[in-house]
Amino acid sequence: MKVSLFVTCLCEMFYADVAKDVVEVLERLGCEVDFPTGQVCCGQPAYNSGYRKDAIKAAKQMIKAFEGADYVVSPSGSCAAMFKEYPAIFAAEPVMKEKARQLAAKTYEFTQFIVDVLKVEDVGASFPVKATYHTSCHMTRLLGVTEAPFKLLKHVRGLELVPLSNSYDCCGFGGTFSVKMVPISEQMADEKIRHIEETEAEVLIGADNGCLMHIGGRLNRLGKPIRVMHIAQVLNHRGEGGEPYVDEDRKSTVL
Asked: Model confidence over 221-230: pLDDT tens digits?
């Protein structure tokens, strides 16, 4: 199965290791992954801020970049959801609207693709820590992906996943919201962190780098020793030191 990686801005600029983990997990599951070099920002920051012309320019470039892709997979539910907005953006342009519809139809968030398309829930990961999971707003409310991350984490050997109180509350990032509404954003992050601390988790797992960057930054400022990880990093973890995980039930090594 051929997959084109939609890496997203934050992943490319700040979280290259997450992109690497996404590729390695997909390849381990039998996918052939390519990276269309013509991709740029999906246009979401401009679109949400009212700069429609700039968003349309970015959208046209992204449609062109991924036109030949069989599947498009992104490590961000928020950015994947933006592709789903493209048909509405080009409502008055029939040709572009159809191209946008085709792109939207073949675009998936990382965990959504693994569970719903590849039909895999156990990727052979091992990560013996106590953790909790943050559900990001765009991924759950706009893209509608709610169960896939939990189905995958359920099968991670050694992982103790503790429920997070008020998990569906926004962390305060919201893209440009965290820049324009700093005091409110900060208070929302602090509330989220209080609930994370209540779980006594060592690690906070999430599927959107924007949320993780926001929460992680606030944790760092407050001096909290809680590690923040993208779910791809967890799913690509196969034991301490990165060694393969040995499935004792099947007596075989999961590579």
From this structure: 999 999 999 9
Q: DSSP letters of 69-125?
A: -SEEEES-HHHHHHHHHHHHHTTT-HHHHHHHHHHHHTEEEHHHIIIIIS--S----
- Domain boundaries, given as residue ranges, for the chain: 2-117, 130-241
pLDDT over 90 percentage in the chain: 76
- What is the amino acid identity at position 11? C
Query: Where residue 182 falls among pLDDT bands split at 50, 70, 90?
Result: confident
User: Using CB atoms within 10 A of its CB, is residue 197 exposed (0-12), middle (13-18) or buried (19+)?
Assistant: middle
Closest by CA position to 91, among listed 82, 83, 100 = 100
Q: What torsion, rounded to 10 degrees, do the Cα atoms 15, 20, 22, 26 define? A: 170
210-238 burial, b at 16+ Cβ within 10 Å, e below that, comes to bbbbbbbebbeeeeeebebbbbbbbbbbb
Determine the CATH number of domain 130-241.
3.40.50
pLDDT score at 166: 86
Q: What does the pLDDT average to over 83-87?
A: 96
Question: How many of the other CB atoms lie within 10 Å of CB of 3?
Answer: 24
- What is the DSSP pairing of strand 203-206 with strand 227-230? parallel
Average pLDDT, rounded, for the chain: 90
**Is the distance from CB of 138 to CB of 81 less than 8 angstroms?**
yes
Total-model pTM = 0.89
- The beta-strand segments (E) located in the chain are 2-5, 32-34, 71-74, 107-109, 130-133, 160-162, 203-206, 227-230, 245-247, 252-254
